[in-house]
Amino acid sequence: MSVKIIEFNLRENFEGKAFFALTLQGGVEIVKSANGGTYVTIPKCSLPTTFDDIVCQSLIGTELPGTIDKVECEPYSYTIPESGEVVQLHHRYEYREEIKHQAVDFTKVYSPSANGVHKPETV
Q1: How far is 78 from 57, CA to CA, in rounded Å?
Q2: Do 114 and 121 touch, CB atoms closer than 8 A?
Q3: E strand or H helix that includes residue 56
Q4: Residue 54, burial from CB neighbour count under 10 angstroms (0-12, 13-18, 19+)
Q5: What three-state secondary structure class fits 55?
Q6: What's the number of CA atoms in the CB half-sphere (13 Å) around residue 54?
Q7: Could you report how far apart the first and last alpha carbons of the chain are, in Å?
Q8: How far is residue 53's CA from residue 36's CA, in Å, rounded to a whole number?
Q9: Any idea what DSSP says for residue 16?
Q10: Which residue in 25, 37, 41, 82 has its CB near the most CB atoms, within 10 A?
Q11: Measured between alpha carbons, how far is 122 from 60 in angstroms, rounded to an integer?
Q12: What are the pLDDT digits (tens) for 9-24?
């Protein structure tokens, strides 16, 4: 799976220092609402960077291996931009990097040689 970089924004950390964050977008998901209805959504999250605006701009459209996962968190209030309705949320979205596992060649067994240096031996 992969996510796409769709934009970037200038942010400020708790110390007042400016930085850029990339906005990542996942794939289309079908979810159930609290009242039982079904709707389609696309999860998004932001990822802080050490990049300047030129690098961030050049990354728009780039795909990264991984997913955007829904993660439980402390409740917080959120205002829906389209309606102005304030709702309580108990989750946030977080980027999860895809970890590629390296294949292990089990046809070789590593054993110490007489001089203490490990070298592969074919089985």
Answers
A1: 28
A2: no
A3: helix 53-59
A4: exposed
A5: helix
A6: 0
A7: 36
A8: 42
A9: S
A10: 25
A11: 47
A12: 999 999 999 999 999 9
Two structure tokens written together for 99:
């970890």
> Can you tell me which residue has the tokens 């979205």?
93
- What is the Rg, in whole angstroms, of the alpha carbon atoms belonging to the chain? 22
Tokens 């309580």, residue?
88
| Token pair in block for residue 91 | 């989750």
Strands 18-25 and 38-41: unpaired
pLDDT tens by residue, 14-57: 999 999 999 999 999 898 877 888 889 899 999 999 999 999 99
Determine the 3-state secondary structure of 54 from DSSP: helix
Structure tokens at 73: 């968190």
